[in-house]
Amino acid sequence: MRKRGVFAVESAVTVPFFDVDPMNVVWHGHYVKYLEQARCALLDALGYGYDAMLASGYAWPVIDLQLRYMNPAVFGQRLTVRADLVEWENRLKIHYLITDAQSGTRLTRASTVQVAVRLDNREMQLASPAPLLEAVRGVLA
Question: Engineered SS bond to 64: which of 76, 98, 113, 141, CB 3.0-4.6 Å?
Answer without folding.
Answer: 113
